[in-house]
Amino acid sequence: MAVNPIARLMFAAVLSACAVASAQAPPELVILDAALPPLEAGNAVRIALHAAGGVPPYHWSMTAGDLPEGVLFSPDGVLSGRPTRPGNFAITVMVTDSSQPVRSASKDFSCLVTAALLLEWLRPPAIHGNQIDGAVQVSNGSQDKLDLTVFIVAVNEIGRATALRYERLNLAPGTNNFPISFTETLPPGTYVVHADAVAEIPPKNVILRQRLQTPAALPITQGP
User: Fold this and answer.
1) Smallest Cα–Cα separation from 210: which of 144, 154, 146, 138?
2) 182 and 207: one domain?
3) Nearest to 138, CA basis, from 150, 153, 123
4) Which of 59, 123, 171, 221 meets the CB 3.0–4.6 Å disulfide criterion with 146?
5) Do 190 and 169 form a contact (C-beta atoms < 8 A)?
């Protein structure tokens, strides 16, 4: 039976259109990163995740899990900030593209946050009459001896700083929760307490830093 020439042309046109559409379809959207690098508490981090396929630009989001305190995840796929504490964390991220309909891909990531130097409040700063007192604790999670300096100051509402404690010591590897207390009599005012720890590892030319700050000003209402 003869085939209608018009039907043959229409069939050929459909096949051609399907072939063009198939050739122009964007590749599958995938997240390229296999894993996150380890992080260190107190050190700034910036990790950019990468995707391929689909139709750029991409939009990233976190759909499950919790980031370390001090770290944020932006819509452009960047983890940035300064983790404050050691520990493990796990997240699920999703990337979507700009195609219609939108394509998406998800991936689970886990990561360990370590701490070569850790500075924590042992007793958060508190007011007792005309005094501020409290304590910090420092830990050395590295395999090296740390040449450590701890400096604690109270800054009043006009920016004047009063030293509460200065300590210089060698912190042996594996030392945990070494206490450093402070107390000082101060004139009336409102004070924000800052605690800074700076550790050097001279053989490696490495400097580690940690900082704490009271979340709100502490008022002293009576004089010495």
Assistant:
1) 138
2) yes
3) 150
4) 171
5) no
Q: Is 182 within a domain? A: yes
In order, the DSSP letters of 175-219 are ---EEEEEEEE--SEEEEEEEEEEEEEGGGTEEEEEEEE-SS-EE
Q: Per-residue pLDDT tens for 60-75?
A: 999 999 999 899 999 9
* E strand or H helix that includes residue 113: strand 104-114
Counting the structural domains of the chain, the total is: 2
Nearest to 214 by CA among 197, 196, 191, 198: 191
| Torsion angle defined by CA atoms of residues 144, 149, 134 and 137, in that order, rounded to the nearest 10 degrees | 0
Same domain, 108 and 132: no
- The answer to whether position 153 is within a domain reads yes
Residue 89 belongs to some domain of the structure: yes
Whether residues 138 and 104 share a domain: the answer is no
For 157, the enclosing helix (H) or strand (E) is none
Tens of pLDDT, residues 171-200 = 999 899 999 999 999 999 999 999 999 999
CB of 193 closer than 8 Å to CB of 125: yes
| φ, ψ (nearest 5 deg) of residue 10 | -65, -40
Whether the CB-CB separation of 119 and 199 falls below 8 Å is answered with no
Residue 51: which H helix or E strand, with range? strand 51-52
CA atoms 4, 9, 13, 19: torsion sign: positive
